[in-house]
Amino acid sequence: MNIVLLSGGSGKRLWPLSNDIRSKQFIKFFKTENSEYESMVQRVYRQIKMVDTDANVIIATSKTQVSAIHNQLGEKVGISVEPCRKDTFPAIALATAYLHDVRKIGLEESVVICPVDPYVENDYFEALKDLGKQAEKGEANLVLMGIEPTYPSEKYGYIIPATKNQTSIVDTFKEKPDEETAKSYIARGALWNGGVFAYKLKYVMDKAHELIDFTDYADLFDKYETLEKISFDYAVVEREPKIQVMRFAGDWKDLGTWNTLTEAMDEPTIGEAVLDDACNNVNVVNELNVPIVCMGMKNVIVSASPEGILVSDREQSSYIKPIVDKIKQQIMFAEKSWGSFHVIDVDETSLTIKVTLNPGHRMNYHSHQRRDEIWNVISGEGTVIVDGMEQPVKAGDVITMQAGCRHTISAVTELKLIEVQLGDEISVHDKQKFVLNV
Amino acid sequence: MNIVLLSGGSGKRLWPLSNDIRSKQFIKFFKTENSEYESMVQRVYRQIKMVDTDANVIIATSKTQVSAIHNQLGEKVGISVEPCRKDTFPAIALATAYLHDVRKIGLEESVVICPVDPYVENDYFEALKDLGKQAEKGEANLVLMGIEPTYPSEKYGYIIPATKNQTSIVDTFKEKPDEETAKSYIARGALWNGGVFAYKLKYVMDKAHELIDFTDYADLFDKYETLEKISFDYAVVEREPKIQVMRFAGDWKDLGTWNTLTEAMDEPTIGEAVLDDACNNVNVVNELNVPIVCMGMKNVIVSASPEGILVSDREQSSYIKPIVDKIKQQIMFAEKSWGSFHVIDVDETSLTIKVTLNPGHRMNYHSHQRRDEIWNVISGEGTVIVDGMEQPVKAGDVITMQAGCRHTISAVTELKLIEVQLGDEISVHDKQKFVLNV
Q1: CA dist., res. A109 & res. A107, Å (int)
Q2: What is the value of ipTM here, to two decimals?
Q3: Left (φ > 0), alpha (ψ -120 to 50) or beta: where does A258 sit?
Q4: Rg (CA), chain B
Q5: Which residues of B touch A371 (CB under 8 A)?
Q6: Which of A395, B169, B300, B364 lies deepest, with the highest CB count within 10 Å?
Q7: For the segment A294-337, what is each residue's pLDDT rounded down to a tens digit?
Q8: Are the CB atoms for B398 and A398 separated by under 8 Å?
Q9: Which residues in B lie closer than 8 A to residue A399 (C-beta atoms)?
């Protein structure tokens, strides 16, 4: 199976866990069999590999997510990096060109497109395999997954199939309806459109060449910024007469809000939490290392991260976006290509950060104009380079760097350090990168 | 006026703001006219000084609170330090002896005893002055304040006066009643017993000598640990026939629980907080530097500090003690004689702490056997002494100290540092103090 996972943008719907730079699909939220936690991306990737060990998985995303994807899925996973956001048609065209030109997938092979964050069981990925096989038969140019509705949702588009067969020609598509209309659709046998479909690689390559003037993947990548923003639905689906739909009746959840996300939690709390006996229907997700105590709370979601603390009525939590959009705040936690950082103290003329470098990784070689820095290595072993001078470091070592001095650190084992930044104008933008010649 | 403020022990009823080492009376909770926050201790001390500039204020407390009292009230305030906790009779005897022998207060002068944490207006302290004056008249050996009840509380003891006059002989005392009994007391003109009373210094000195074999303050202090634990009520009040009560009808609140404390807040929130329009009767007290967002919450108290996060139904919050007593946790924040510290990162083999030294103060000269330390000075100026070697330090300086090395730091201006502790067995008990000869 060739599968393209569309990894959407960042957002604050799951603040304080998600924010402008940390997308919900990277939050480690789901308990695995060995009692560790995995993210949506990790869960979906693991499920795909269980169903099809040889699956060719490509993640289509923006460059801001590349570090997090490599950290969570390893270096081998295929990534089709969108130089900028241009809606789904350019993204799918680019990923398809990547599969053809870089991964050398044949034109007659099928490609399955799926969002990166459905909360599903393995039967869902079995259904995706079937979707790919159906696309390869060539009975239709697009084969969609139609999810059997469990209630008259206003959140989804609907697909009305021509027949009640497992696989059917699509009669019509319907936009997100109100509840009454949704009921009438369901009475007519309508299915939810989860944005999942398969096609022969050749089909989308042809469509891409029809609509975009490019030679190959590299060329498409180079001119990506000039492309028109257009959705795959608008550019392709709405104009295509030969579309089939395959029914899927298994579990399927779209965990886009606190309300739906917490429903999928195996246990009521993650992290340090104490609920008294008077609590009912309370979920706590705590990324801090101090306890959250809840007393007499009902139908409430509590979450704490280095970014902030949310205490919300379960229903009310769906209105979070405009409220947290108003909060102007420094980023307190981020995954980087080399590991992660966490702001642990903010003062007038200093910023203290805990930095974790993954084994074998290093930061960019860089300098700052307006701040001095001190690295206190607290665990692990590695190498620092300061103004071209290289030296090994281990726990207990201290490196001081004046403003202007070029520096980097690489980790042999996992390496943690406390970085103290000192200056009157500390800013993430005060950073000059250099090529390291060693 | 000579006034002894009884500063009670620590407790977790206001967790996460109060804990085993941080008592509620030191939490900066009340907004002053210049929009700063003051603690209960600061508020009461300021009110006393407004009513009586020359008031002789003594705080009777344990040695664990001395640092916090000096930090909050300055070095000049009188403190009668109890070497250990021995209930109210020994504490009042010790404070009275302190007034007599150290402060040279005459035997005929009156002393007013008052808890350190009533939430009251200035008229209350005017009433305390009257209480003292009444005691000096010598009509009775004890003059109690009787607070006009506002409801049939089960939380307080009751005083039943013989007459309805402003000042009356006490007829009887009643223990904390149930609500129905409280109603019948109130119908008989009963008053709440707020634990406030005045006496002539000689009276309590005589009682003390009757019950304890001691010569003077220094002697009483030295043998304090051998004294019997006994309450002032049991030792004195219950055996004294000549007791008067003076009515007080002004505002009086006992802010011992989250419920009562938040009722006294001038604004619904302290610290960074965002409440949506669907919130009602919500109080937030946030000591962290990240926002708390509340959505659709009703009758809820939220508080966050370096120790943890509380989310509680307003009524339910009074049951907090047994729940937080179970939480075993490192102290994350403390006021010390020299300033304060705040744990900002905990890792397996390291602990990172932000230390603030007040101007003119220094730490004890000390060493650790099982950990190295690194000081990163982030602001201010001062002097470090490491193994007897003295050197000035300023922002940007780094001092590394191996286990066993003796060290201290003193602040010229307010001095802040990030202290990184490194070792396999980091413990607050791993500390040897030394006399500094410089």
Answers
A1: 6
A2: 0.85
A3: alpha
A4: 24
A5: none
A6: B300
A7: 999 999 999 999 999 999 999 999 899 999 988 887 788 888 88
A8: yes
A9: none
